[in-house]
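Beta-lactamase family protein: structure, please.
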Amino acid sequence: MKNFLDRFLKVLFLSALAALIAVSCSKTDGPGGDDDPDDGTVPPQWACTLKSISFAPKDNPGLTATCSHRLLAGTYYVTIPIGVPLNNLKATFNVSDGAKVEIDGKAMTSGVTPHDYSKLVRIKVTSMDGSASAYYYVNVQNGIDKIDKLVYDFMEKYSIPGISVSIAHKGKLVFARGYGYADKDNYERLEPNYMLRLASCSKPFASMCIMRLLDEGKLKLTDRPFALGGVLYEQFPDHKANFEQMTIRSFLEHTSGINQAAKFDPMFDNNITKQLSNIETIEYVVKNFDSNYAPGEKYQYSNFGYCVLGRVVEAITGMPYEDYLKQAVLEPAGAKNIRVGSTGLANRLPNESVYYSQDGTNGYGNDMKRLDSCGGLIASTPDLMRMACALDGQDDRPDIFPQYILDLMVTPSTAYRYYALGWRVGHSLYPGAAYHSGNLAGTATMWARNYNGDTHCAILCNSRSYLNQSSGSFDDALYVLLSRVMATGNWPDQDLFPEFE
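Here you go.
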């Protein structure tokens, strides 16, 4: 009887163990990752692990070295050199002993069976005895190893689901890549043509609108919008007297005297103004707040000042800000994938990324229409390169402004030598470059043009980390990432602009 009971309990234990392993190994969706290690905890006949995937030169004549994977947040990423087609590659699969590999129901033999890896691939690994299976996502893209490693390291350290990177050199789009996911929950790959929020990288566009009006003689930098006869005087007649001294230049240079650091940022921090439209926000601020210094005296970054500039554009042109931006700036540069972003996940626009909050922040807490001219735009990185090439003063592609306007935009203010008219300047990491950064919850951005005279780059992230924020770790790391990417050099002899018309 005892022997029978022992045998019964042993069978019961093994059955329970098999059921447990089947549950952990049978994944109907989502990346499997290396979660079933063959370390003795899983009987060999039940193991269904994808340990690695690579592409070897002996199996793929276009390669000169083996391309191995990088496992990041459950997805296997592989970089294939630029110029090597992805639609007929033969992968080397390192899986559990005796396990079988399938893609789209087709059996795959390691190093033998070709497959199209140009899109995100879902791989099924089935155990030796067929009782368990797991699914894994593999993202194979053409790229540059040095850049890809920098980006993947950044994504891993700061938990960024998706990043878009584009580089232009001497008038050509030489590199355009989406890394990771635009929608990680639905495994929607972030493609280079996807649009992401610009946050404060929207400010150079407000400056460009003002520069267009300046070049056409419709305003001067010394104009005072709130003064008697100014373009906003009648729209906001009830205002404190100190606003009458603020000039267009002072708003562009962040020297208007509205000190958001000492008070609050009316575009974000105040429970009253955050619920208002941009017009209502200006009405509230000009009635209730005094400036802290005379216009032009001191630099103090002001989102509110760029909200005012958007309303100046509307008052002069009689057009909504976005419409004038499109007509006067974007269309002349050939940029079609730049616009005011959506508000709320449910209103996500076609080819717009999802945004991922961290540390309890709300990535969908802002009305992007309200932020239009100070931080509300979205763009693809190839179109940011179009804009940079249209502003670089080079002969490779036509500029949309005369040289005196291009020079004016990057001339530092007398109050602060690191900010000009809508552009940051003078950073030691970016020799010769005009640039801007931006951040919102769920968004982090960098955009630079004229680095060393002929190189432009944009990096847009669909999340923002607050890791070690007290030391500025994330912000500093993003600045460094941009500089290292731009310093790569030896760019491919190609122009990708026609692919993103």
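Notes: The CA atoms of residues 468 and 482 lie 19 Å apart.
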